[in-house]
Design goal:
Elements: E1 3-7, E2 10-12, E3 18-25, E4 34-39, E5 45-51, E6 58-60, E7 68-73, E8 78-83, E9 92-99, E10 103-105, E11 109-113
Parallel strand pairs: 2-11
Antiparallel strand pairs: 1-3, 3-8, 4-5, 4-9, 5-6, 7-8, 9-10, 9-11
Length: about 120
Amino acid sequence: QVQLVESGGGLAQPGGSLRLSCAASGFIFSIYAMRWYRQASGKERDLVASISSAGDSANYVDSVKGRFTISRDNTKNTVYLQMNNLKPEDTAVYYCNVYRGSMYWGQGTQVTVSS
């Protein structure tokens, strides 16, 4: 079965950095686009970034462009989200996602940006 396990969240100061990882299993990772979403408390879950199956194309929501970088390692079945110049408004639970006829989600990892 599909499993997505996020890690790397935590507390960061404004302007700081975190790197999220998502380890995938139960499907052929290298043929699927992957996505990162986030959900702030009391808000809807929103798409943050996506990456093509080969890793040669990525898209970002405007609010993170120039600060976040999505990448993947198909030899390790892992997708990453490098987050730089973090802002308090980046505080949320971050989820890894794959669409394979249905949406599959990890358990999420909390990112808190605060001084």
